Amino acid sequence: MESSNVSQSLFPELRSVLAFQFSSWYPIFAGHTIKSTIIRPLPDDFVQYLNDDGVYIPDGADQVPLSSSLSDDEDSESNEDVEPLRSYSFPEIDKRIRECIALYEGAVFPKLNFSSPRDAAWMLPISSPLKCTSPADVYMLLKSSDFVSFDLNPELVFEGAADGDKTVYALELVLRKWYSIDRSRELRCFVRGGMLIGISQRDSNYYPYMEASDVQYKITATVTKLWRECIATEERWRPKDYVFDLLLTRDLARAHIIDFNPYAPRTDALLFTYEELGKIFHSKKLSGEHSQVEPVFKFVNTPSTSAAPEHQHNMMPFEALSLSNGNDIEEFARLWQEELKKGVDNDSDEES
Ligand SMILES: Nc1ncnc2c1ncn2[C@@H]1O[C@H](COP(=O)(O)OP(=O)(O)OP(=O)(O)O)[C@@H](O)[C@H]1O
């Protein structure tokens, strides 16, 4: 009993999860966010393709097939019990992706209704994360990501939400103009009961410039202004409990909206915990000042000791992908071990 009271006070009711899908909020805030194109409806076999095991590219999507480094003999021997992969081809979607790439000056950032494949960013050059310059890049990221599989599963999407009508849920492919984003200027902002209560730095790196109190003041003022003028007063935007992500301009005087998320356990509270946010919310509510109260701003204030890259758990060497095609996990593990052993043997040959 007690725990349900606690969670009730930690999280307000999630009235509409669909308010947070891209096609719901983008038309309302198009003037304050990155230019984007929504491709929907998507054919059933596209959804099937995303759900299928293995990372492979549909025919005609401009990609040299991921080639196995095994010899032909080994290849045919190891694959003889494996069901051939179903082949897919999406000429219409390929065409739309190419048009968007041209429209957005050479590159797009892909996502589905809610999630981007940011856990698969390591697939493309890390210096320009998630920068897709061909349909094949888009497919490869979506197929390699665990995060986007959330959007493919209506049970997960509607979990804990009051708008339980899964029949209206349709998958969408979103292509946003790609920018080289300075992560030190990204923020996540928490709104509960119609009050802006918290602002967190978006990643976990230490940025010395944030130590200065005038910088903190400026960031808080910019976020509060954008929220009051563009979001809180926007009648078409109904949720009273939500999280939004922003990118500050270089001079910290303005900001662009990046994304909206539900105020719910599925949204990472970053440098806050939801317990802390709950306390801030209740104290602001008691103060009776509502949205005029300054939000709490949190940033990393000591240099980090960890150099581990984000989403490391989801990384595997590129060569491994070619071995994964159509193999079950045990077969894949065996082949990958052989490849690793070959590598060790070659290394010791070179050393001797
Ligand atoms: N158009 C873009 N061009 C380049 N990078 C982008 C673009 N949009 C977002 N990003 C980067 O990708 C990150 C994730 O984007 P976004 O918030 O849309 O994905 P998400 O999967 O919804 O993330 P989360 O689950 O954390 O909300 C952003 O923090 C930003 O660094």
From TrEMBL:
Pfam families: D123
Superkingdom to which the source organism belongs: Eukaryota
InterPro entries for the chain: CDC123
A cellular component term, taken from the record's GO annotations: cytoplasm
Family of this protein: Belongs to the CDC123 family.
The protein's name in its UniProt record: D123-domain-containing protein
